[in-house]
Amino acid sequence: MREDRRESGVFVGRGRELAGLRTALAGSRVVTVVGPGGVGKSRTARQLLEQTGSARPVAWAELSRLPDASRLADAVAAACGLADHTAREPAEALCAWLADRRLLLVLDSCEHLVPEVRALAADLLTVSPGLSVLATSREPLSLPGEHVVELAPLSPDAALELFLSRAAAVAPRLPHPWPPSLLRVARDICRRLQGVPLTLELAAAQLTHHSPEELAARLRRHIDPLTSATPRDPRRHQSLRTTIGWSHELCEPAERLLWARLSVFAGPFDADDARAVCSDEELPPDRVPAVLDALVAKSVVRRVGREHLVLDTVREYGGSWLGRLGGREAVRRSHAAHFHRLARLAEEGWLSSGQDGWYQRLGSRHRDLCAALDLLLRTRPDRALDMAARVAFFWACCGRLNEAQSYLQRALNAPRPDNSSLARARWALGVVLLLRGEPDHAHRLALACQAAATAPGAGHYGNGGHDDHRDRRLDAAYLLGLSHLMAGRPLAARIVTENALDGLPGTPFDSAATLRCHLARTFALTATGLHHQARVAAEELREGCAARGEYWTRSYADYQLALLSLIEDRPAAAAAHARSMLAAKQRLGDSFGTALGLDLLAAAHAADGDPVRAARTSGAGQTLWQSVGHPQRGTPELAPLRAECERRARAGLGDDAYEAAYQEGVRGGWS
Predict the structure, then answer these.
(1) Residue 173: which of 143, 211, 140 has the closest Cα?
(2) Do 443 and 432 contact (CB within 8 A), yes or no?
(3) Which residues face 149 on adjacent strands?
(4) Residue 464 burial by Cβ neighbours in a 10 Å radius (0-12, 13-18, 19+)
(5) Model's pTM, two decimal places?
(6) pLDDT digits 0-9 by tens, 415-443
(7) C-alpha–C-alpha distance, residues 7 and 11, integer Å
(8) 635: CB partners within 8 A, 6+ apart
């Protein structure tokens, strides 16, 4: 549940502040760490949790890159592990999800959304007695009962320790330990930088090219000595701005240019992203990686594995500089074009060995995809429609249904010329609505997609030609078949999908649309009692997907094979297929599919005479069903298997032991 965005560098000092935070959290449900930019609020909160842990689960919601409050509830819900599949508003779903949970919710970097964060936190605290909030902000949230902890700069000794540690990392040529004469210089540097951790790290990075004495001399020219200090002393803000500006001044022109352009990223990025978004004739693509490495060496950019991050305060400076250069809109357009292209490549790579990688990449780039869509909706709604249609199926799988529906509907409602993306967008919206529990609206869209795809002179998805027209018909049949299946009309689903596939040359793996339609047909075969045909079809799909490294369809082929094995009273085979399904679903980040897999695994345990594991696995599954906002769902033939699973487990354990094992699963485990 906790987002892992670790910051590089050592953590020093803050013993008193950490002790105060522990005490505050023990006595208050709302604790806000306040202080100026660069003082280390987020890092101190992370250190607190890493040192002491928490008696409750922790959810970390990073809010700094949200441009406004429109996705605030979505961001907090995602951090809390809620992948809501209902038509509720995100805040409403979040309140329901947290109502009976014990949780520490960290709201990181709230300062630009204080009124909205205040309102959301107040609602959540009201409905959830077991919830506590730890916030970081440049100002308090002003909530009733809020305990405010002001984070001052580091003490002189801690500031020196941090500076020397960073100096050793970036300039190993310096003596160790430092002689007294250099220590005096280092103390003077720390005093002038007023103990602000970010300024100390940026200054230490300059030791790669300057001696400590040169660094101190530069600071004497740029920053007046500290005469008095409080946590809100405006001179401290000046020190931070001056140090960042000085770091900027010491950068090469290409480094300053890249720093400015990197400010358009809303989340983590890699060298390929930077090259695509930030390069032009002035900064050629082949130079970007080396310039990016130089910014890492200067502590302007943080490297975390293969990815890079720009701290908020540094990013703000870069954005300001980009505005002065007059190139902000051009870089934003380049950013939007890159992520539109990324969405297209992901869709084209859906049926490939890189499928799981695309799910993970789109997940890590989610904030930038949203930023690109926001810009395109304002400037190129036709491209926004195309992009939303391409990412929606990925988002639907990962539980981002509210955002998928919102962007699709906004793009469909925006003034734009009719184009080939309309068909794809309406189809994607139908899939999203079906998963959100709006079957009537989804069914109407499915019928409209089928009518449009089979009409004389029907258009195409975008590439043109016979294959596109074929894929439109197959995707329409998939959606309509799925709608019939969810409504308990399996014969209609079988007729629709078989009609679409009838006489089609080739294999199920000729296109993503062909594969999806074959999968829907397999579901319909099972649901209409044609179990042998269903098994043959499911095994063919599973084998072909495994050979191609495809996970999404393979997981649902395993679902069908587990279901058929239970019907055939082969619990060991059912458990094996359920575990295979779970491995794939967890790889893709699909909570809904994972919940389905746990139901099947629980039924297999019960059928195999293991009521304890059946009860535990059912409890774990119920937690996930709650996280998607639905009671247990799936195709109708799963319902009697669930009921039989519970009956057998209760009969084997007794009601009290069953409930105890079930609650153990709810609290965190299945096997």
Answers:
(1) 211
(2) no
(3) 33
(4) exposed
(5) 0.87
(6) 876 667 899 999 999 999 999 889 999 99
(7) 10
(8) 485, 486, 523, 526, 527
